[in-house]
Amino acid sequence: MTTTLASRPVAAGPAAPARGTRGRTALLWIARHAIAVALSVMFLGPLGFIVLTALMSDQQALTSELWPRSWNWGNFAEIFETAPLLTWIRNTLLYSVLATAFMLVSSIPVAYALAKFRFRGRKLAFLLVITTMMLPPQVVAVPVYLIWARFHLTGTLWPLILPMLLGDAFSIFLLRQFLVTIPREYSDAARVDGCGEFRTLVRVILPMARPAIAAVALFQFFYCWNDYYGPLLYAGTDLDNWTLSIGLAAFRSVHRVQWNLTMAATVLATAPVIVVFFFAQKVFIEGVKLTGVK
Amino acid sequence: MAATALGRRGPAVPSSSRGGRRRANLRALLYLSPWLAGFAIFFVYPLLSTVYFSFQRYDMFTLEPVGLLNYRYLLHDDAAWTALRNTLWLVVVMVPLRVLFGLGVAQLITKVKAGAGVLRTIFYLPSLVPLVAGTLGFVYLLNPGTGPVQAVLDAVGLPSPDWFGDPAWSKWGLTILGLWSVGDLMVIFLAALLDVPRQLYEAAAIDGANAWHQFTRITLPIIRPVLMFATVTGVIQTLQYFTQAMVAARVASGATDSAGSVFVPGYPDQSTLTFPEWLFHQGFRDYAMGYACVLALVLFAISMVFTLILLRQFRGFAEEEA
Predict the structure, then answer these.
(1) What pLDDT shows up at residue A143?
(2) Which of A272, B17, B93, B223 could be cross-linked to B192 through a Cys-Cys bond (beta carbons 3.0 to 4.6 Å apart)?
């Protein structure tokens, strides 16, 4: 499961069919690499184009030119004057950090119980976790909104943060999928040594589950960082309560600015995600694999 | 020790195991309690509540029972049906295209030996870009006046539509955006492709099977469950499609916010209006909350069908030991 591309021979490699001549193999090689290069350009191109536009002048951003005629690094300073970006970043961080911390505290014990305990209704509980994970949040949006309105918390981000204290279905699911792969012998051995169930979880299981915990934490953090629907529903009309994503979506319409500044703000919202990805690439990739079926 | 326990308490095994089982159940209850509370407060209660509100007229101030009025209104609400058609369009077109494209890219990576790791990183990266940021980028990129896509299409002699401004093309614009962020599917498919035992290909090659036959006779049957799973979860996710459509329409329409104006999603001409968007608009912009609950129940019914398919088809998903 943890095999990497580098350490493993590529499985589906061409096994040199008897009929294949050397010329045909070479042609195939060229075709494959040409497609790979073309696709790479198509995948990276938009990102590069966004960065280049972010550095253009107002006028040039309205043309289809690719390369900035002048490098307007000042655009990145200007967006902070145009919109309360610092406030939005602070709100987004508050939402992402608290939601992730709360999610971990509440979801790890649930996932552990679903993976390792034997009890009545265990299978049903897991099926319900999957069901809540799959169903669109919009299905229950109206009554949930009314709950928060009753506590006068609409117009803030708390309706998005506080529920994380009661577990998150996707994180529970992902953690559980990892925890079932830990052989029972480890927890049995800890129990023989006189460890209670809770100490076994903290001392034995959690250290072993570190990659999965890192993955769900990162996924949760970036889910919040990128979340648009949630803040759009709850943050209200006061710009001081907005997050980066809803601010970014309204950037052009509220602040009536040009594309170059919009793209500069886009770069600002994207950069942290890309930076973290390069430091924790393996965690992401292994985490994504856990979301598939085995 | 076991013997003395037997001696004192009679039939020790059943009784102690029954007590042990009860203790195990209580312990599980304790560990599950946060989620059980969340399930009750944020799922069961709201779901029942949604049914209740669907028979009311409610705007957050006055509550008035109206019987089946909201349901009857659904039959005459053209926008709701347009939204449902658009959502189903995305399910039928975008989901299969994403699966095929993700599989193609993954397969390509397995064939390219040098730089496979770098390619995987490149193809995965766009799926991490925040949805709002990626959508803004694509609206600008595909915009005929400002983006390079038109120049490329002109150069090869293809017509270049006004993607996000033309009702006939706007959903295709969203589809292209969806294909760009296919990275997470690609990672799952790549892992599955690399798990196919190599000997099978070698044996097939000895029997003279060409690459196409190897792919259709060996690869596809083995990774079929992974593809099916990705398709069904893709359908469920696409039924929730909201952010990209909302942001694209908002930016492409060039609407500027003025006091008291409410942006109506779907630009151009309701062509990007998805079902969750219409639900959101009815419930939280027009405050027709009772009617929004009817829309919510429709969405619930459709999503539930696919969730049940998923749970039926992939029992292994919830197996005792993975």
Answers:
(1) 96
(2) B223
Best residue in B140, B228, B310, B321 to probe A by mutation, most A CBs within 10 Å? B140
Are the C-beta atoms of residues A180 and A126 closer than 8 Å to each other?
no
A89 vs B45: CA distance, rounded Å = 34
Chain centroid, CA A265 distance in Å: 19
Residue A225 is predicted with a pLDDT of 94
Task: Compute the CA torsion angle B181, B182, B185, B189 (nearest 10 deg).
Answer: -140
The conformation of residue B263, written as its DSSP 8-state character, comes to P
ipTM above 0.90 for this complex: no
Please name every residue paired with B200 in a beta bridge, in sequence order, or none if there are none: none
Residues of chain A with pLDDT under 50: 1-18
Closest-CA residue of chain A to B37: A166
Radius of gyration for chain B, computed over Cα atoms and rounded to the nearest angstrom: 26
Helix (H) or strand (E) segment spanning residue A170? helix A169-179
* Best residue of A28, A39, A43 to probe chain B, by most B CBs closer than 10 Å: A43
Tell me whether residues B131 and A228 touch, CB distance under 8 A: yes
Length of chain A: 294
pTM for this entry: 0.89
CATH code linked to domain A85-290: 1.10.3720.10
- Give the pLDDT of residue A9: 42
Peptide bond into A136 cis (omega under 30): no
| CATH architecture of the domain with range B79-322 | Orthogonal Bundle (1.10)
CA-angle at A80, arms to A76 and A84, nearest 5°: 150
Residues B316 and A294: beta-carbon distance below 8 Å: yes
Q: Distance between alpha carbon B265 and the CA centroid of its chain, in Å?
A: 20
The structural domains of chain B, with segments of one domain joined by +, span: 79-322
Are B221 and B151 within 8 A, CB to CB?
Answer: no
Q: What is the pLDDT of residues A120-155, one digit of tens each?
A: 888 899 999 999 998 899 999 999 999 999 999 999
Q: Which residues contact B44 (CB under 8 A, 6 or more apart)?
A: none
Q: What angle do CA A136, A171, A200 make, to 5 degrees?
A: 150
**Residues whose CB falls within 8 Å of the CB of residue A193, separated by 6 or more in sequence, listed in order:** none
Contact (CB, 8 A) for B322 and A180: yes
Please answer yes or no on whether A131 and B311 come within 8 Å at the CB atom: yes
Strand positions, DSSP E, chain B = 56-58, 63-65
The residue whose two tokens read 């690094």 is A73
Query: For B17-43, what is each residue's pLDDT tens digit?
Result: 677 788 888 889 999 999 999 999 999
Yes or no: say if B164 and B143 are a contact pair by the CB < 8 Å rule: yes
Residues A111, A125: Cα–Cα separation, whole Å: 11
| Cross-chain residue pair A285–B120, CB shorter than 8 Å | yes
- Contact between residue A175 and residue A212 where contact means Cβ atoms under 8 Å apart: yes
Give mean pLDDT, residues B163-191: 93
Distance CA A200, CA A203 (A): 5
C-alpha to C-alpha distances, A173 to A55, A108, A118, A168, nearest whole angstrom = 42, 10, 17, 9
Cβ–Cβ contact B317 with A under 8 A: yes
Using CB atoms within 10 A of its CB, is residue A129 exposed (0-12), middle (13-18) or buried (19+)? buried
